[in-house]
Structures are given as C-alpha cells and as structure tokens.
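Good morning C.,

I know you're traveling, so I'll keep this short. The sequence:
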Amino acid sequence: MSTSAPARSHLHAAGTRFGGAAVRLGLPALVVGAGAGLAAVVFRWLIEHATWVFSGHADYSATSGHPANPWVPWLGAGFVVLAPAVGGLLYGPLIHRFAREARGHGVPEVMFAVDRNGGRIRGSVAVVKALASAICIGAGGSVGREGPIIQIGSALGSTIGRWMRMPEVRLKTLVACGAAGGISATFNAPVAGVFFALELLLRDFTPTSFGAVAIASVTAALVGRSVFGDSAFLHLPAIGGVTPPEYLLFALLGLVAGAVGIGFTRVLYLVEDACDLLWRASRGPEWLRPVVGGLLLGLLLLALPQMYGVGYPVLEHGVAGQYALGFLAVLVVGKVLATSLTLGIGGSGGVFAPSLFIGAMVGAAFGEAAAVVEPALHGQIGAFAVVGMGAVFAGSTRAPITAGIMLFELTGDYALVLPVVVAVVIATAVSKVLSRDTVYTLKLSRRGVDLTDSAVPVRRSSGATVGGAARPLGALVPLTATAAEALVAVETGGGAPVVVVDAEGRFAGVVSARSAGESVLTDVDFADRPVLDVASDVTAVHDDVELDGVVQDVIEASDTAGLPAVDGDGRPVGWLGRADALRALVPAA
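The tokens, ready to paste straight into the viewer:
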C-alpha cells in the first residue's frame, strides 16, 4: 500500500523537525558533558585537598583508631571536634552571601529548576556549590559528592543553554545533560547517569532527550576515565552465584531496605527542623549556624570517626564482610545521624552517597543475621550488601531503574542483576506505601511545591453553581501587605491559599504556599517584596456561574488547588476547592 503525497510530506516534515532538534542539541550536549566531566575532576581534586588541609590524611574515615592531624598534632584526636566548625566558618558566609540555594543536597533545587523555573539556574551556583561542598566534606561533613556535582553540572548546562538562547524545552534537556554528566564522571557509570537524569529530573524518555543526555553522559565518562582510569568506582569483592532460595531473602531485604530508606528521609528532615527551631530561638546570624553546629558534629566524629567525609573506604570494608553485626548497626545509625546533622546545621553535600552507605551496612547486617541462621550464607554477605545499596537508594529516591543499572555498572557482576531488581522493585513499592514523597521531593513539598500533582478528569453535572459549592473564606490579606506577611497568613491557615483584596475589598490576587515557597527558593530579598509579586497566576470565578463551566479550571489550578469565588462587585465571597467542586458534582454524577 503506497503512502499519499500529503502523508509523505507530513512524515518528512516530522522527521526533519526531529532530526533538526537532535542535531541542534547534539553539540551543546557534547560541550555540557565535557564541562560536567571536567567539573567532576576539579571537584574531586578540591575535596581531596580540603581533606588533607582539615585532617592531614587522604581519607580520615579510612584510618584506624583516632590519629591526630599532623598539621596540629598538639590537639590529638580532638581536632575532629574543631574541623567541622572551622570549615563552617568558611562555607557558611560563602553560601549566605553568594548563593543560598547551594545549601543542602542540591538535587531538589535542580528538580525545582526543571519543573518550575524553566531550567534556569544561576551560573554562580556551580562555583559556590563546588567550593562550599568541598570544604564541608573535607572538614568532616558526612555527606556525598554526587548531589553537589549534579547541581554543578546542571548549573553549567543551564548557563550554556541560556547563553545560546535556547527555548525552555531544550534548556531543561541541557540541565539534565549536566546532571547526567556529573553522575557519569563521578561513578564511571554512563548508563546510570542517563537514567538518573531521565527518571528523576526530566521524567521524559523521548528519543531527543535520550539522545542528548546519552551524548553528555558518555562524553563526561570519557573525560573522567582519562583522569581516574577505567576501573570501577568502588572496589567490591567478587560475588558468587545466587541460588533460587536466596531470592526470598533478597525480597525480604527489599522490604527492610524500603522502610530504612523512608526512615532515613524522615530523620533527615526531623533533624533539620530541630536545628531550624533551635537556631531561630538563639537569634544568631544564619552564616554562623554551621560553625556552632559544627562543634556538635565534631563530637559525633570524635565518637565515630568512620563518619568523617563521604566514607567510601568504610563502605568497601562493610561490603567485604569486615565488620561484626553490632558494629554494622552502629554504622547505620551513625551515618543517618551524621548526614542529617551535617545538612541540618547548614552544610552542603549530597544524600546520594549516604543512602548507598546506609544500604551497604543494612545489607551486610542482614547477611550476617541470615548467616547466623544458615552458616552457608556467610560467603554471600557481599551480595546482600550490594543489593542493600541499591534497595535503600531506591527506597529513599524512588528511582528503581537508576538503582538497578548503577549497581550493575559499579560491580559488573551479572549474577546480581536479578537479585538487585527483585529488591529494588520491592523497596520502591514499600517506599510508595509509606510515604508520598522521596528524600528529594519532600524538601520541595514542605515549601508548597508539589511535583506529583496532575489534573483528574471528572464527570460534569448541571444545576450546581459556584456560590453553592464554595466554602467560606479564611483570612484576607490587604494589598498593602508584604510577601512575608502573606506567607505568615498562609502558614497560620495551615497552608491554605489566602486571598488578597484592595482598599475597596475587591479581589486582587491569591497567595499560595507554592507561589510563596517558590519565591523563597529563588529570591533572597523575598520578605520585603509587594504581596502581588508572590501571588499565583489565577483568576476569580463569579458565584452565580454554573459549576459545569469552571470545574476543569478548578482542577487545573495546580498552584492554588482551587479558585476564589466573587460576587457581582468583585468582592470575594468564598473559596472553590477541588474537593468542594467534586462534592457538589457527585450527587448528580
């Protein structure tokens, strides 16, 4: 059957558009990948030298006992109490003055930029994040370097894309290219880098996006290998074959790991809340927070020096079965607390590596416990540890594809593919049951930014009006209020949107937790801005209009989850939320 001329013309035009987009993204993706690879090399160099400066050792977590810092031998082992505080004295003012979004673990800020800010990330973030995270980790901060390099690479991609005046869709793709390149060069895992960017950032598997991200990831991997070599990132022991009955144990490990991943997330933000509360009560300047908190972190490092820095040597020892069951449990609890405290006091670093560390210790402990029951399993402790790494990572991030591929690239052991898949899928399912958010999205959700919302189709009815379905309004905010006052009103109302009115009481705008939260993330001068600067882009609906005609608008109002109802004079008389509209429609459906 032949294709008609018009059909051939449409197919040719579509192919030309696709090919043109791929070509236009190919070269920028190559440049971003090379830049991300170089950034990963420089960033690792900064961490290594910062670690030497602050501890006097290549990796203090790999040392035995409590050795002194050769630069300050008179302090003995006690130097670890002061090291995080001194580091905080350097990176605290740096973050506070130049790029406050560089605080924390970085990935949520990239997700926000892709999903809500059109892929725009300030170029200065890359420099500040690199310096602050290197100092934080080198001074003992128990965080990872993967989160920072994701943010650094993403900022690079955004900067190059904006310099080339790329449209928003391609700019977002270049941000993902930078993130993929950072993961690829850091882990020597180019395929995992691709799927991390597609699964967590873009949530888009179109051929154009995949091609561009793959180019960047492979390029970054080549740059990384030219400097670090082609060996695996982690030196893990050889894993033997897996027998069919052991799959039940791996499934059980997936259940445990999924719960641990969510537990890690909860503790992380609980500690951050406690630190926020205590620091607000002290009324100290924000830049000083890492200094004071660093002393507390230093005491933890003095008790458990294995928590110093990223801790990959400790992870490798755990996978090799060199730790007893009780000490593995101590390492799990210690890492959760140390990472949470590092970020809670205002440190800069990722949660990617800590989740792998916790997973390895949980898996090794699970293997040790299983070996007590069945001694023949003692030789499989490494397998349980590796599977635990992927499962806890999947449980905390809910990125099962990335977890499975990354563990295969890290080990190169095909025998573990099926056990990893089994545990990762179960851990992801458990995570979804226990929590709506992940370790990345929870930071944004707490600021009113929901990356998971979507419009829900409903059946429409007739007869109901907006006024009849709307509920009474809460507090109103005057047009003369500041953005900070509006945010207080939102928080006082339990996160519900507040309506802004002018001097005559007529509708002027709506401020939601999301619109205010986005401004907090992106605007350092947020507090004193006019209230309408942080208002959501919504319009009011008249109370005498039939519900049929506006219900879809209510559902699609993602920022406010509803619309204000006004009378004939434009004065607010109620609030029409999604639940209100659905409740009014259900009886007639």
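Safe travels,
E.
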